[in-house]
Structures are given as C-alpha cells and as structure tokens.
Amino acid sequence: MPNMTHNLAPQAAIAELKEEFAFFDDWTDRYQYIIDMGKQMPPFPAEKQDDAHKFHGCQSQVWFDAEWKDGRLELQGTSDAAIVKGLIALLFRVYGQQTASEILATTPEFLDELGLKTHLSANRATGLMGMIQKIRAIATEADYR
I need a surface site. Which of 28, 42, 57, 60 has the fewest CB within 10 A? Predict the structure, then answer.
C-alpha cells in the first residue's frame, strides 16, 4: 500500500491509482483495497469531529478539514463508514498537498477512469462528488485571494 503522505502531482497520483486498481480482478477486491486505504489514514482529531467540520452531503458521517500550508492544501478527514473513509483517502491522494491551480486543473473525470462512478451507489457517488466540489471551492477561494 502506498504511503499516504507522499506528494505526487494529481495526474501521477491518478495514474498510480489506475495501476493499483488494475491489479485486482474484481470490484470486491477493489472495495477492500479502498477500505484498506482508509485504514492507513492518519487519525482525525477527536476535537474536530464537530458540526463545524462535518461535511453535509453524505449519508455517512463525514468530518473534513483543510488548511493551506506553504501554498499547498493539507487535508484531513474521516468517516464512520469504512468504504467512505477509503474514498476520502483516495481523494486526498489526488488533491492533498497540491496548489490551488493544480487542484482546479484536476477535474473529477478520474472517477470515471477508475470506474468508481459506475461501481458506487448513487448516494456514495453524490457524496464523493460533493467532497470534490468542496475541495475545488476551497482552491477557488484561495486562488482569488
């Protein structure tokens, strides 16, 4: 399993994820891999599991925090659902530690390329798109400061 703190450019992270997904023959194994990615995430601070950090738009409970450090977006998050926590980890591999312009240049089409949109429930796919929209909104706001 790749180190969750590595800093690849978004397209390189997407290419790496495609290679990792191709290793598995079926979606049951890919789901387990996504769950395992979630287990590798650093713990989300308990004091941030509050309404101010709650992400609305997912059926599961999701908490999310973003902070700019040295021009790069540091993301933290967690969920009470294992698969959702894994999906958060996947998004953070693509969008975490990126500049605002890199984030805005990375459109959500990679979800189709990975096959995620067709293999997730409608609610999970909607929640995932909502998180991407939130990350992109944070980048847009920073880009215009």
Answer: 28
Q: What phi and psi, each to the nearest 5 degrees, are found at residue 127? A: -65, -40
Q: What is the CA radius of gyration of the chain?
A: 14
Q: Looking at 17, 34, 41, 58, which residue is catalytic?
A: 58
Confidence at 52, pLDDT banded by 50, 70, 90: very high
Instruction: Report pLDDT digits (tens) over 4-37.
Output: 445 689 999 999 999 999 999 999 999 999 999 9
Element (H, E) at 128: helix 122-143
Q: Let me know: does 103 contact 10? Beta carbons within 8 Å.
A: yes
CATH number of the domain located at residue range(s) 10-143 in this protein: 3.90.1010.10
Q: Which amino acid appears at position 95 of this protein?
A: Y
